[in-house]
Amino acid sequence: MNEVNDPNARREDDSLLAVARNLGKSYPKVFRPRDRLRALAKLLVGNGHIDSVPVLRGVDIDVTRGESLGLIGENGAGKSTLLKLLTGVLTPSTGSVEVRGRVGALLELGAGFHLEYTGRDNIAMSAALYGLAADELREKLPQIIDFADIGRYIDEPVKHYSSGMVVRLGFAIVAALKPDLLITDEVLAVGDESFQKKCVRWMEGYLASGGTLILVSHSMYHIQKLCRHALWLRQGEIAAAGDVFDVTQAYLAYHERKSAAGPERGIIAAQGVEFHLLGLAVNGTEQETSLFLDQGDSLCLTARVRSRDGREPTVAFGIARADGTAVYGVSSEMDGVAPQRIDAHTWVAEIVFSDLSLLPGTYTVKAHPLDTEGVRLFDTIERGIVVRGSTREFGLVRLQHRWGPAVKSDAARDAGDSDS
Amino acid sequence: MTRDDSRLRRAEKSWAIAVHFIRRELRNRYLGSISGGLWALLQPLMQLVIYGFVWTYVFKMRLPGGDASPAAIVPFLALGVWPWNAFSEAVMRSATAIQDNAGLIGKVAFPRGVLVLAAASASFLLHGIGFIVVVVVVELLGIPLQLAHLPLALLAFALLFALALGFGYLFAAIQVFVRDLSQVLGQVLPLMMFTAPVLYSREFLPERFRQWLDWNPFTFYPEYLRAELLGMGSVGVAAQLGALGLALAILAIGYAVFRRLDPRFEDFL
Q1: Would residue A143 count as lying in a domain?
Q2: Per-residue pLDDT tens digits for A91-146
Q3: Does A125 contact B20 at a Cβ distance shorter than 8 Å?
Q4: How many domains is chain A built from?
Q5: CB contact, 8 Å: A87 with chain B?
Q6: A79 exposed, middle or buried (CB, 10 Å; 0-12, 13-18, 19+)?
Q7: CATH number of the domain bearing residue A88
Q8: What is the ipTM of this complex?
């Protein structure tokens, strides 16, 4: 049942549809017409080296047949550039990319429609561009028009379309192509609810019948629903790749920490407040990236506190949900324990939550030093943690519970489901 | 979009795309207007009537040999104006073919050269049809044409197409980087027309200027067509080989430059 959580689930023996090695792309810096002229001269007679800004660096991808890969990342992280490199619209600046089989690509909106032409004409154009013969098109045309479901607009110029209708038509064409590899960029964001559902249903069917998908979306819901693996691009580099839940949760945690980012550590230290944190280790690691835990794991937080005047600090630890809702908080003073003194000015406090009852999701753990009396709060360090799991319970924590007269349901008996 | 198919299959697909773009070009220009395809036939005839009128009665042109009748002047002009229209339009339109389709280039992977090929082909198709209409009308009016030489004339048209396509590839690639190019072309092409014997004959020029016409790559075409179809003057073998060599060289250079710049188009569009 946890097959999706297994990073080794990727089948190595399958044929590779897309391979990228050390793939990179730089865009030339051209601000003035003079730069363009200079670039032209260099390309024609020089070594072709142009001053450029890298937007994608060192990307390695293997997409096997049947794979579903979600691309996530902030705006400008290089997602669209990567898709364009995969489809062959862009030429790589470094590294190589190779794609086999029929590729259906929906890059940005519109799939290159001509605004002056009717939907029907644009279907014919796209079909030719995708290498569909005239008789194949005749056969598929009703299917395309039916899928797009834009009524009489099919015979109107595309310039009269709403952005949703453009996407409907674009998706309908790509869907009819039955590509080996489908590459789509933010299609689902524009269509209305019913079309989104239709697309998702189609993509699920496509994947079930052995199709391969690379999907860019800002909707983690869609990514998690459709993709088995995800790749997170940050500033043109792969920040994380692997199982879709791990990567999307790390990505979300990164965003929360980003929006909740406090002042820099160095600044607080320099202010010379009475107590400040030297560091916070989560299960032994001080890395900024989110830590992944499974339900029931133990969580160990270790805070190092510096005391300016050598007075003993109180140390508080807390866990909050991604949206800031407090889950639990406790301080050394409340429990009547004292941090361990390491040297004249340094104390260490450690707390262990064994058998973590947090439900799957993204959480923030926090550490604060307080004064000896546990009254004034001086400093905060936060870290993201991600609790993995695929339970369908909701809420924050699993509360101890039992059902009345306990009888296993038929469904649970049939499925042999061991989940409580 | 299939990236691993054979060369033949790729060429076949490129051709299918090119045909599609040619059809689109033709429709762009004619089917959008109310009179539709009829306009494609009427326009060259009207142009011919007006040119014939102006050159006969306003400019009072006298052909080499002294003939000043409209019946002689009209075919003379036709053999200069039609190749010129085809050539200049093909060069102008193919020069912006890549830039005009920037949206498509950024979204779908396909051989970009077909855009230039389609722009040039559409111009030659249209003006080629116009040319044939003119030849038929001239023939119907009882003006003697050496129709046995028509295949040679069409061969010259094919060569002119190669020349226009070569310039087209060259300019389309450069236009992506230097946006002023199409404006400059708009200024330079009319100069090229007036420095070639399109609306006049070499014999009209004072002796010392006549050689200068040879520097214009277009000069060969009206002179050759008039020699073959009207029996007016003659074009030597050296000039024929020169025109052949030049057209093929421009095509080769233009295509080489296009191929070299092609991978960077998307960066500069």
Answers
A1: yes
A2: 898 999 988 888 888 886 656 788 888 888 888 888 888 878 888 888 989 999 99
A3: yes
A4: 2
A5: yes
A6: buried
A7: 3.40.50.300
A8: 0.79
